[in-house]
């Protein structure tokens, strides 16, 4: 492998000693690919491993996580979005290399662009106004991700200068962009909490969106009626004898669920020592044994309630809402402004968006709802598609995972079983699945 120029020979030796050992096996399980990661324990190492897997759009169907002293062991059972094993050797090789080098600080995902961070009050037509302002300021949107939750919006938008195709670095121009966007995000009622800024930090985009919404305290705001029916079940209790706080999560399964939960726990400065993840049909069951970074468990009812609220919010931010529309067309100035204006004129709100460009082509994914957050009727969707172009804007079916029905839990573990087993029994089961003990009975 290629070493960073800043490392001397002693540092390279330390890196070899501490580098995670990675094993990817398709023979052990009939339905999933087994991914094992053994690593020196450090804060955030679990999040980095999960991030590598989920960035490849793989599903984590089961996981067993445990730490022993200074060492950390993860076992993941993964499939693609359609429930199949990993078969592509290029993907397997890439995963091995990425998991084996997660101790290294990786290069920025986005280079040569200016990153705009925006938070504010969500409303129908907001994105239309944001993209119209950027188009007027001669900014070309290269990539963007937009999340909404509890009436709030957070977005990371990567832009270049339309004329030069280069990063926008002029401080006066950046200040002008911020000053034009801030009143749009504030609207008529949000006089304090709207924020615009230019980010120079190297941060994983989706982790940064979680951080932005956490800082915006979206978890404290009143949820919309349509989101209450799918509220995740989260409980927190202390295992006093062992000094752990035990977090149980039950919710609908979906891609990147484990990433969202671990990301939130990590950014709240909790350390995961043991964990189990199990999915049964369309449901997911997660259990974490955590402590503060100073080794103490959760100490108060107020803190316990805050953990529950924050985890529920983290899961719901990425929950699928409305209809998924994919726009694939040649990129051009004002494309996003025009498309989102059509959404607004037809009463559609963008609940989530993923904007990307490759060469002169744009691939934009929008999850749209009506003004109240419910699934829009087909007549409205047809009208929007006719206006934008039925060949370029298409309704896309969600991956198989969203259509699964609950399965019978023959193992007795994971669904209700995870709640019925004693805490000590669960830890022993973790260690058994990791191969650290011969029997957990």
Largest sheet geometry: 8 strands, antiparallel
Structural class: alpha+beta
Number of distinct beta strands: 16
Percent strand:
25-35%
Termini gap: 43 Å
The topology string of helices and strands comes to HEEHEEHEHEEHEHHEEHEEHEHEEHEHH
Plain-language structure description:
Helix 2 runs antiparallel to helix 8 and helix 8 runs antiparallel to helix 9 (301-317). The longest helix has 17 residues, at 301-317. The two termini are 43 Å apart. This protein has 13 helices and 16 strands. The strands form 2 sheets. It has an 8-stranded antiparallel beta sheet with strand order 1-2-4-3-11-12-10-9, sandwiched between helices. The model is unreliable at 405-428 and 431-441 (pLDDT under 50). It is an alpha+beta fold and 441 residues long. It has helices at 9-18, 45-55, 89-100, 126-136, 171-186, 205-215, 225-228, 257-267, 301-317, 335-345, 378-388, 416-420, 423-433; strands at residues 21-25, 33-40, 59-68, 71-79, 114-121, 139-149, 152-161, 195-199, 233-239, 244-252, 270-280, 283-292, 323-330, 349-358, 361-369, 393-395. Pfam families: ACT, ACT_ACR9_3rd. This is ACT domain-containing protein ACR. InterPro entries: ACR1-12, ACT-like_dom_sf, ACT_dom. GO terms for molecular function: amino acid binding. Binds amino acids.
Task: Tell me briefly what this model is.
This protein is an alpha+beta fold and 441 residues long.
Pick out its properties:
single chain; 441 residues; alpha+beta; eight-stranded antiparallel beta sheet; globular
Question: What is the topological layout?
Answer:
Elements: H1 9-18, E1 21-25, E2 33-40, H2 45-55, E3 59-68, E4 71-79, H3 89-100, E5 114-121, H4 126-136, E6 139-149, E7 152-161, H5 171-186, E8 195-199, H6 205-215, H7 225-228, E9 233-239, E10 244-252, H8 257-267, E11 270-280, E12 283-292, H9 301-317, E13 323-330, H10 335-345, E14 349-358, E15 361-369, H11 378-388, E16 393-395, H12 416-420, H13 423-433
Antiparallel strand pairs: 1-2, 2-4, 3-4, 3-11, 5-7, 5-8, 6-7, 6-14, 9-10, 10-12, 11-12, 13-15, 13-16, 14-15
Helix pairs in contact: 2-8, 4-5, 4-10, 8-9
């Amino acid at each position: 492998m290629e070493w960073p120029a800043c490392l001397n020979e002693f540092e390279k030796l330390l890196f070899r000693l501490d580098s995670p050992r990675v094993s990817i096996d398709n023979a052990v399980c009939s339905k999933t690919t087994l991914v094992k990661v053994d690593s020196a324990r450090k804060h955030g190492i679990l999040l980095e491993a999960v991030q590598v897997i989920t960035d490849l759009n793989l599903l984590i169907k089961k996981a067993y996580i445990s730490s022993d002293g200074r060492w950390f062991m993860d076992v993941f059972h993964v499939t693609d979005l359609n429930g199949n094993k990993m078969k592509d050797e290029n993907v397997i090789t890439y995963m091995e290399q990425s998991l084996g080098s997660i101790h290294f600080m990786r290069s920025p995902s986005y280079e040569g662009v200016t990153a705009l961070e925006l938070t504010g009050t969500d409303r129908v037509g907001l994105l239309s106004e944001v993209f119209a302002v950027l188009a007027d300021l001669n900014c070309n949107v290269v990539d963007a991700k937009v999340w909404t939750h509890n009436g709030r919006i957070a977005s990371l938008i990567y832009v270049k200068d339309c004329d030069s195709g280069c990063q926008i670095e002029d401080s006066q121009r950046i200040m002008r962009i911020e000053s034009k966007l801030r009143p749009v995000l504030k609207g008529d009622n949000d006089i304090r909490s709207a924020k615009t800024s230019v980010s120079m930090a190297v941060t994983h985009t989706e982790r940064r969106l979680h951080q932005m919404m956490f800082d915006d305290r979206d978890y404290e705001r009143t949820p919309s009626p349509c989101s209450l029916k799918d509220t995740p079940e989260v409980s927190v209790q202390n295992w006093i004898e062992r000094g752990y706080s035990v977090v149980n999560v039950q919710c609908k399964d979906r891609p990147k669920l484990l990433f969202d939960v671990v990301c939130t726990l990590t950014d709240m400065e909790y350390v995961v020592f043991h964990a189990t993840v199990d999915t049964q049909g369309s449901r997911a069951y997660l259990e974490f044994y955590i402590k503060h970074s100073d080794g103490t468990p959760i100490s108060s009812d107020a803190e316990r309630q805050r953990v529950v609220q924050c985890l529920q919010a983290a899961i719901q931010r990425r929950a699928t809402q409305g209809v998924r529309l994919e726009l694939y067309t040649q990129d051009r100035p004002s494309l996003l402004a025009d498309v989102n204006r059509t959404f607004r004129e037809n009463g559609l709100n963008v609940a989530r968006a993923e904007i990307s460009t490759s060469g002169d082509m744009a691939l934009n994914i929008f999850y749209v709802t009506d003004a109240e957050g419910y699934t829009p009727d087909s007549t409205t969707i047809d009208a929007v598609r006719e206006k934008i172009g039925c060949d370029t804007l298409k309704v896309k079916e969600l991956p198989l995972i969203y259509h699964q029905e609950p399965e019978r839990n023959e193992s007795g573990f994971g669904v209700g079983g995870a709640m019925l087993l004693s805490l000590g029994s669960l830890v022993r089961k973790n260690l058994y699945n990791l191969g650290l003990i011969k029997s957990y009975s």
